[in-house]
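Exercise 7.
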Amino acid sequence: MKGKTIQIWKLYEVEGSSVKRVNRFCPKCGSGTFMARHKDRWYCGRCGYTEFIRKS
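Solution. The predicted structure, written as tokens, is:
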């Protein structure tokens, strides 16, 4: 197997009877493709889309 396996339970939080997503979805790929959270950016591993986090 190439690379690491996704630990899907870390991408959601359960609060009572509702489920909340921890990471956001990629705006280019659509729902179902999570973006990775890095120190200074959000990155989509599927299409390569990157959003940099601005320091305010």
